[in-house]
Amino acid sequence: KWPNTIWGLMLNPNQFLVSKNLDESLWQEIRSFGISATEIANARTPAGFRKVLENRTQPQNPITDNAYMAFGREQELPIALQLKADFGIMPNDWTICHHAYRHHKATPDGISLDHSLISEIKTTGKDFDYQVPLGYMAQIQWQMWVTETERCVFAYMLREDSPNGFIPAWFEAKTMIVERDDAAIGALIKTANKLWDEIQNKWIQKK
Questions:
Q1: From CA 86, how far away is CA 60, in angstroms rounded?
Q2: Contact 93, 19 (CB under 8 A)
């Protein structure tokens, strides 16, 4: 049985581990000692689980930057400012760990000052029509588990082509509220713990 969440209480300062903007290399190192929201979203299927395990235990070539990634970076700040104005959510680049399972980690794109609400920001080439894709839903549920929150604002901006590259298709990102799903979270916790055990076993075998 997993520990009861402490909804309505502030996160402990020692749950905020490292800021990506302050020290990206340290941020990468600390994230490696645990399971992130991106990893748990990818590991939700057997094939994805194997791929995440392979990525963590074997050297991988860095992902080549591209126009899709650049558009996502460009849109993150204006969308974050929109969420600050509409929901009181502050932009976040800190990796946070769960209060009891410290290898359970996440870096939500935003968190409210009272720590009751988080946000996740995405860009897309196809309108989600207010339906959260399964991979993103797993990522969001994991973030709510780590931060002990009940709701997440999911914001996404559609991109479209122009003579000068990608541009926003809308004046503002579309937003929707995602509620916490403890049944889904329970399944993600089991997957994360299994994945972490296998990663640690691989590390021990290498030694």
A1: 40
A2: yes
